[in-house]
Amino acid sequence: MLISWNVTKRCNLYCAHCYRDSGPHASVERQLTTGEGLRLIDEIAEAGFKMIIFSGGEPLLREDLPELVAHAKTRGMRAAMGSNGTLLTAEKARELKVAGLAGAAISLDSASPEHHDRFRGDSGSWEKAVDGIRHALDADLKVQINMTITEHNAGDFAAMTDLAVELGVQALHPFFLVPTGRGKSIEEDALKKGRYYQTLRQILSRQKNSPIEIKPTCAPQFMPLSRDMELNLRFSRGCLAGVSYCCVLPDGEVNICPYLPVSAGNVRERPFHEIWRESNLFQDLRDYTKYEGTCGACGDVGICGGCRARSYYYSGGNLLAEEPWCYKRENKDEERICQ
Ligand code: SF4
Ligand code: SF4
Questions:
Q1: Are 246 and 3 in contact (CB under 8 A)?
Q2: What's the distance, CA 210 to chain centroid?
Q3: What gap in Å lies between CA 90 and CA 141, rounded to an integer?
Q4: In angstroms, rounded to a whole number, what is the distance separating the alpha carbons of residues 181 and 44?
Q5: Which of 3, 106, 281, 313 is the most buried (most CB within 10 A)?
Q6: How far, in Å, from the CA of 36 to the mean position of ligand 1?
Q7: Could you identify the atom of ligand 1 that is nearest to the CA of residue 258?
C-alpha cells in the first residue's frame, strides 16, 4: 500500500495545473508540525502501508524532510519524494539518500524547455529540474519523471521517452490532467476524450519496447487496455484510491487522492489507521458492488475502478458514479472516436 503526504502547501513555483493550489505565498499556518508528522508516520506504518511519498507543494521547502524520511525508514517503509526538482542540489540529494530516501519523482512536462517553463511559470525551471534529476541519480536515488499530459504536450511524449532513457532514469509516468485545484482554470487543456484513448494506447505501445517503466497515471483504463494488448504489466489496479492508496493534506485531512477534496477525517482528531480502516468513504470504495452505471456492471472493475475524481466532478458529487470517460460506455461519441 502506498500513501502520499503533502507535507506543505508552499512551493517555489506557481504551476498552472497545481491540484493543491500551491505557490510561494501559500499559508503554512495549519501545516502539521514535525512532532505531528512523526506521529502520523507511526500511524501510517500501523495501518500497514509499505511506501510513503513526501510531496507538496514542494517538500524540499520543509527543513525537517530528512528527519521525516529517516523516521519512515525506521518504521519499515520505503520513502520517496515528489518534487519539482528545481531545489534539489547535489548536497541535498546526498543528505536525503543518507537519511534513507529511496527515490525521487521529479516533474518534467516536456523535452522542450520552453513548454515546460511556460507550464511551470518559471523561466529556467526545465534546466534546474534536469539538474535535479542528475543530482538524484548521482546520489544513487531511483528516479521517476512525472509528466503532466495535456492537449499541448501529448505530441511530445515520444521525445520525452527518449529524454528519460538518455538521462538514465528508471521510470516515466505520464499523468493525465484531472482538472482540480488550480487545474480547473485550464480544464480545456485536459486531453479531449478521443485524444485520451489515442494517447493512452500510444503510451502503452511504447512500453512494449522500452527499457524503462512507462506507467500511465490517473488513466485507470490502462489496465484492461494493457491486458487486451497482451502487455504483462506489474500493476494491480488502474486507480488505487481508497483501496490501497490515499493522501494526507498539509493540515492533516485524509483524502482518497490529491485530486479529490473529499475528506475521510483529520489525523489531528482521529488516528490515521482508524480513519483508513473504518471511514465509510474508504469502505464504500472497497466495495465494488456499490459502483454505479458502467463501472458497476463492468467485469474489469477490480483491475480498473475508473477515475473516482472524474466520476465525482462530472456527476455533481457522486464518488461511486460511472467513469464519464470510459470507452465501455454505450452510445458515447468518444467510444466511436477511440475504437
Ligand atoms: S481517483 Fe482519479 S485522479 Fe484520483 S488516483 Fe484515482 S485515477 Fe487518479
Ligand atoms: S467501466 Fe469503469 S471499471 Fe470498467 S473499464 Fe470502464 S472505467 Fe474501468
A1: yes
A2: 21
A3: 11
A4: 25
A5: 106
A6: 27
A7: 4
300 lines ligand 2 (CB under 6 A): yes
Sequence-ordered list of residues with C-beta below 8 angstroms from that of 118, at least 6 positions apart, any chain: none
- For the chain, the residue count is 339
Nearest to 160 by CA among 150, 146, 142, 178: 146
Mutate to test the pocket of ligand 1, among 180, 239, 255, 281 (most ligand atoms within 8 A of CB): 239
User: How many angstroms separate the CA atoms of 228 and 42, rounded?
Assistant: 41
Render pLDDT for 237-282 as a digit per residue (tens, 0 to 9).
999 999 999 999 999 999 999 888 899 999 999 999 999 999 999 9
Atom 3, ligand 2: residue with shortest CA distance: 301
Q: Which residues contact 8 (CB under 8 A, 6 or more apart)?
A: 22, 26, 28, 31, 56, 57, 58, 59, 61, 62, 250
Look at residue 333 in the predicted model and tell me its pLDDT: 47
- Please, which residues have CB within 8 angstroms of residue 35's CB and are 6 or more apart in sequence? none
Amino acid at 147: M
**Rounded to the nearest 5°, which phi and psi values hold at 263?**
-95, 140
Give the separation between CA 157 and CA 111, rounded to whole angstroms.
8
Residue whose CA is at the smallest distance from ligand 1 atom 4: 257
Pocket test residue of 304, 312, 319 for ligand 2, highest count of atoms within 8 A of CB: 304
Give Cβ neighbours of residue 98 (< 8 Å, ≥ 6 apart). Answer: 66
Q: Is the CB of 148 under 6 A from ligand 2?
A: no
Model pLDDT for residues 117-166, shown as the tens digit of each residue: 887 777 899 999 999 999 999 999 999 999 988 888 888 999 999 999 99
